[in-house]
Design goal:
With 189 residues, the protein is mainly alpha-helical. The longest helix has 25 residues, at 116-140. The protein is elongated and about 60 Å long. It has helices at 6-20, 27-34, 38-45, 48-68, 78-91, 95-98, 102-108, 110-113, 116-140, 146-166, 171-187. 76% of the residues lie in helices and 0% in strands. It has a single domain (6-187), classed as Tetracycline Repressor, domain 2 (Orthogonal Bundle), CATH 1.10.357.
Length: 189
């Protein structure tokens, strides 16, 4: 029976994986970050990959789904609030926002090209985000046809993905990309 807080270990490992990526993260870095020995990490998670999978699952539940949840609640301003929160974090140059999205980073890594599980996880995340944004667009623009809502939601989701991808390399471009979402929502016909 483990004598450590599994969630705290996953959170500590998340910061290391988020900063360095899966391939570039060494076991010694994970030991330092978590305070556990290699054998304890392997005992609890099976492997470095098992720990990474736990990190991605936790990130999806704790970070992504928490932020997406309000988008389906019927609030016509939910999408603008979601985008503004993200824009403000990136503009403030917070350490986590500067790292972009952990799931998108994993999807763009060499690991994803050879790993069906990573590709499925990232694809599922993208589908969840598109569905949440579609719901928010429908709430915000009830004047649009379902096809127009789908198209506008696709554009808005693409802008969010672009900004989260750019956040790591070009903060100003990421901020500008997110700032274009409200205008896009308003001007779409």
């Amino acid at each position: 029976m483990p004598t450590f807080d599994r969630r705290a270990v996953v959170d500590a490992a998340r910061d290391v994986f988020w900063q360095h990526g899966y391939a570039e993260t060494g076991i010694a870095e994970l030991e330092d970050a978590t305070g556990l020995t290699r054998s304890s990490l392997y005992n609890a998670f099976g492997s470095k990959r098992g720990l990474f999978d736990a990190v991605l699952a936790g990130y999806l539940d704790d970070v992504v789904r928490t932020r997406l949840r309000p988008l389906g609640g019927g609030d016509p301003g939910a999408l603008e609030a979601y985008v503004e929160q993200m824009r403000a974090a990136i503009a403030a140059d917070s350490s986590r926002a500067r790292l972009g999205c952990l799931l998108l980073n994993a999807g763009a890594s060499p690991l994803a090209s050879d790993d069906d599980d990573i590709r499925a996880l990232v694809s599922g995340y993208a589908a969840e985000m598109r569905a949440a944004i579609r719901s928010a667009v429908a709430d915000r623009r009830p004047d649009l046809s379902p096809d127009a809502v789908d198209a506008l939601a696709g554009v808005c989701a693409s802008l969010v993905v672009a900004a989260l991808t750019l956040a790591r390399a070009d903060r100003d471009a990421a901020v500008a990309t997110l700032a274009s979402v409200p205008t896009t929502l308003e001007s779409w016909r």
